[in-house]
Amino acid sequence: MKSSKPGKMSREEGKELREGESSLNQDLADQLALIGSYYEAEGNIYRARAYNEAAERIAKYPRVITSGTEARMNIRGVGASISADIDEYLLTGSIRRLRDLEEKNKERFDTLQLFSGIFGIDMKIANKFYNEGYRTLEDLWFKAPLTPAQKIGILYRKHLVLRIPREEMDRINNRITEILFQLDPNLKFVIAGSYRRGEASSGDIDLLVQGNGHILEEIVEALDKSGILVAKLAKGSSQYMGILRLGPDFNAHRIDILLIPKESWATGLMHFTGSKMFNILIRRRARELGLKLNQYGLFEIDTHRQIPVKTEEDIFRILGIKYLSPEERTPNLSSLPIVSESEETSN
Ligand code: DCP
Ligand code: MG
Q1: 8 Å CB contact between 253 and 164
Q2: 55-to-20, 24, 39, 71, 222 alpha-carbon distances in Å
Q3: How many CA atoms lie within 13 A of 249 on its CB side?
């Protein structure tokens, strides 16, 4: 996962928004808030307020926004120009107004890019640092109140922007397998994400481990002892975020270790295998059948009852979708292969 903040595991259940889709509204809100921050910097207080307030409301809006008109009709403070920006963003993934503001405020733009490229510094924090007068990484390093994780982010910044070639991912997989086998030969684990989807390179290492409780500490300790964990960024009860490096001949990379209880294994594996687009599509399909799918399980919406699933195949079967191998769950997937009724009865 490429979030610069820990805590993706702790999202509570029961929200109307499907996980995975919630990030779509958030992405849009982030863009509008960024526009707001440029207007603020230019002293255009009214526009700044309009964009910032719209961003806040959009981030909290309970359904995925599919058009500017929808936002304008349902969200207070969204007028004609913000509505047009939303349509432009949904259609093209970019907002011209923001590009223009960035062009006009080049120094600010370049500094925000530099700061927000660091692990632990998102756009909001980058803006705050800029407004406080910091301009260079040296400024941040020597003068800003950085967290330990942000300092590590600065130290490893040149490594962390690089993708990991599959050949190196294979080595990482082998090394982790050796270490975890020594720890407990029965431990069930897998590197999910783009690696499991067979991609040629990966942005990070998404290590899923089946289990509860203290095993996470033991795993971190074992990896640490073997010398491949070079920094710790954050740790919760079921998630560890750190930096892994095979050795001096290799670059350092982000690793997330996620502990998944047995009853959530199939849904957790599916979630963290992605792609993000596949997750959006399969959750939508579940929803159409009156079910809710997330990383924790598959649930009946009306009764909240959890439907037991042991494998990913179980999930596909229950949702009436033909099984897609991880390699087929690509980021540019546009629809899922629904099993037709005649096929169902003939099987
Ligand atoms: N995920 C999701 N929604 C998010 C973030 C993540 O559904 N907002 C799921 C789908 C991703 C998986 O978690 O495929 C792992 O997240 P990564 O960000 O690590 O994405 P990938 O591993 O797919 O790509 P990369 O190679 O860039 O790490
Ligand atoms: Mg990944």
Answers
A1: yes
A2: 19, 12, 14, 11, 43
A3: 2
The minimum-distance atom of ligand 1 relative to the CA of 202 is: 26
97 CA to centre of ligand 2 in angstroms: 31
CA of 178 to the centre of ligand 1 (A): 25
| Per-residue confidence in pLDDT tens, the chain, 347 aa | 555 544 333 333 333 455 556 678 999 999 999 999 999 999 999 999 999 999 999 999 998 899 999 999 999 999 999 999 999 999 999 999 999 999 999 999 999 999 999 999 999 999 999 999 999 999 999 999 999 999 999 999 999 999 999 999 999 999 999 999 999 999 999 999 999 999 999 999 999 999 988 899 999 999 999 999 999 999 999 999 999 999 999 999 999 999 999 999 999 999 999 999 999 999 999 999 999 999 999 999 999 999 999 999 999 999 999 999 999 999 999 999 999 876 655 54
CA dist 187 and 208 (Å) reads 11
Q: Is 1 in the pocket of ligand 1 (CB under 6 A)?
A: yes
Q: Does ligand 1 have an atom closer than 6 angstroms to the CB of 312?
A: no
Distance 330 CA to ligand 2 centre (A): 13
pTM (2 decimals)?
0.86
* Residues around ligand 2, an ion, CB closer than 5 A: 193, 204, 206
| Angle at the Cα of 11 from the Cα atoms of 10 and 13, rounded to 5 degrees | 120
Residues 305 and 299: beta-carbon distance below 8 Å: yes
Q: Is the CB of 279 under 6 A from ligand 1?
A: yes
d(C-alpha 193, C-alpha 119), whole Å: 19
